[in-house]
Amino acid sequence: MSDWYTSFANSGVGSSLVQQLGLPRPAVLRRYEPGQPVLPGPAVVGSAGEGRLRETLTAVLRDAGVVVLPPSADGPERPAAVVLDATGVTGPAQLAAARDLLAPAVRRLRPTGRVLVLADPPADARSPAQAAARQALEGLVRSLAKELRAGSTANLVYVPEGAEASVASPVLFFLSGRSAYVDGQVLTVSPADVPGAGDDEGDDERPLAGKVAVVTGAARGIGAAIARVVARDGAHVVAVDVPAAGEALAAVANEVGGTAFQLDITAPDAAQRLVTHLRERHGGVDVVVHNAGITRDKLLVNMDAARWDAVMAVNLQAQLDLTQALLDADGVLRPGARVVAVSSQSGIAGNRGQTNYAASKAGVIGMVRAWAPAFAERGATINAVAPGFIVTEMTARMPFGTREVGARINSLQQGGLPVDVAETIAWLAQPGTAGVNGQVVRVCGQSMLGA
After folding, report:
1. Is 357 a catalytic residue?
2. What is d(CA 60, CA 187) in angstroms, rounded to the nearest whole number?
């Protein structure tokens, strides 16, 4: 599946036509391909005030093969990214330094460029003025993301003191093609025991090598894309879906060299059956992706109990039950495990006719945040991904007008692809994301709806 308008607007005939008609021309996004560099050009790295992360950022980028330029660089080569260490911002007056660094560098930014700001969390501020300045950066980044063009993105990472070791993985994700449809987002990292270069963490191309990953709802759409990307990154995939989808499920499992496991996740014995399968067939599990979900849309006044209960059972209760069973089963959820739950933009912003669906997806976010401390105690993480408008077979069946509006009302002016969701999930599954826990990452192109 692809966004037909984006493809048309960037074709020979389409490009001329949309220009003549004054129509928007969404950019072809820079998406990840194995073997490609993190960035297609240099990165400008600077700080506002006495930042504490600039040396760390420079080292991370250079280790990844990125040429680092100072803010004063004014050569012929345009930067592919601008990285600002704003941990030195102590009050509103220092925000001008952020503007002074960003404005000229962003003006020279390449198409599909990246802007990344790192700052201290407002909650850790020592004064109201300091908290105000740190929170102000969020407004700056979200607004800048709406100003950028040509497929470029801007994001913000909050880094508390002591969490410097957790910075590398988020920085490389937000700068790379993996984050093509992640825009205007805010992530907070935490101190964690992050694997080092000499530890057992696969390699850059196969960071999940030797891992076992469960993906529910894997027979089609986003679930199949997740299975493909996680397998590409080295994991053995246990593809799970209902028996009625058995043929499609087997095809996906065979394609990725994984294992198909037919299971109705709402069945009373589903959790125990999954635990038993993982223990006996694979010796445990490293990655669990709760992707399975359904819709049964109706206005609330017309919503019957069957529609409500079915959505809650699949989208929320099954995630709770399966996760609890894995936590309770001795040795099945391996050390350093990663659980990623699929929420939705609807769970954040709401959506007409989807009170059941939005409630279930908001519940997923609450589940992730509540469980994060317990997972941290085990050296594991649990996070959520909230897709926006993603081009799938399901959205292709929507009325044309509704579909096109849904695909365009974001900063990137296009619908995302299943692979965009899959890349974010595969990143959260990596060992290097040990410092990302209890977070919600929206994969929505910075939708104009919701926060």
Report:
1. yes
2. 18
